[in-house]
Amino acid sequence: MQADFRAWLVEADEAAGARLGPTAGLAVYQNNYRASLMGSLEATFPRLELWLGSSAFAAAAAHYADQHPPHSWTLDAFGARFADALVGLYPDDPEVAELARIEWAVGQAFVAADAAPVDPAMLAAVNWDTAGLQFVQSLVRLELVSNADALWLALVAEEQPPAVVVERSATTLLVWRQGFESVMRRADPAEITLLELALAGHSFAELCGKLALQFDETAAVAMAGHQLGRWIGDKLIAAID
Hints:
This is Putative DNA-binding domain-containing protein. One of its GO terms (molecular function) is DNA binding. It holds the Pfam family DUF2063. Keywords: DNA-binding. InterPro entries: DUF2063, DUF2063_N_sf. It contains eleven helices and five strands, in the order αααααααββαββαααβ. It is an alpha+beta fold. It has a domain at 1-82. The strands form two sheets. The protein has a three-stranded antiparallel beta sheet with strand order 2-3-4. A hairpin with a 2-residue loop joins strand 3 and strand 4 (181-187). It is elongated and about 65 Å long.
């Protein structure tokens, strides 16, 4: 009976409904179930709803709820693939899916495990020949072709969003949490190269070595040091070991 009820509730399986009995009462459960899924998306993506408008958002949410029923006992992860669904629904408007990715990343950063940022006072004691960088767990990287980050920030501030801009190539947006606030900024290709090396476990000395392939050693160390200082200032580094 439980399997039939789930099949009716999630998939509107008529055969399962017939085995359960009169479907008039069951329809109430099904409508409530669908409404709860759509309500979860509304709570998770409020700025996206502002951008699309209530009717368009409701249509997208209903489509997603029908195509991607939750597989967990909690709805916390229900919106994880919403942005992917929006790519198909809005193929000519990449900012829509990217707004959803930003909103999801902001929410995930906010609930990520706490990590105290590294204290700059400890830098003098670090063995830079072997030291590796540990980034805060809230850090998320997103690839954008639109100015969805500017749109999202304007919606948060209740300001008039700028005109949509779509570029030929993608740039990287970093999203993470500082204290009790999720923040974001764009990163240039040079920073992303170093960031990917550091996240892959390469030491700070190896980061300098990578730069030394393009610049002289003094300049490479200075550039790596500048980037490290920015990461520390942004509270992106949780440990140096």
